[in-house]
Design goal:
Strand content: under 5%
Distance between the termini: 132 Å
Shape: rod-shaped
Largest sheet: none
Order of helices and strands: HH
Structural class: mainly alpha
Number of helices: 2
Radius of gyration: 42 Å
Helix content: over 70%
Length: 103
């Protein structure tokens, strides 16, 4: 083999190696892009799940607080109704009226 032929073979080998390297780099870039897209989707899904869970927890707490407030209001109304008879209410109204007239 002459020198020119050897140089051409080496040049062809180098060109093929370069093409192989470029193909490998493109394949790795595609794999990286695919992996990144999957991670991004997983992160978004995780965020949505967390948001749903927090919303459910807050809704449950709000319902519990609402039920407690209703129960407390009912208890206070019962206590008020026991303390405030019609006679006591009339007596209190007359007292307030007397105070206003006497001033």
């Amino acid at each position: 083999m002459n020198l020119t032929h050897k140089i051409l073979l080496l040049d062809a080998d180098a060109s093929n190696a370069l093409k192989d390297a470029e193909t490998l780099i493109l394949r790795q870039k595609q794999e990286t892009d695919t992996h990144f897209a999957q991670l991004k989707e997983e992160q978004e899904q995780s965020f949505e799940n967390q948001k749903r869970e927090e919303t459910a927890a807050l809704t449950k707490k709000l319902k519990t607080d609402h039920q407690q407030a209703i129960a407390e209001l009912e208890n206070r109304m019962k206590v008020f109704n026991k303390k405030m008879t019609v006679d006591k209410l009339v007596e209190q109204l007359l007292s307030v009226a007397r105070d206003r007239v006497c001033r």
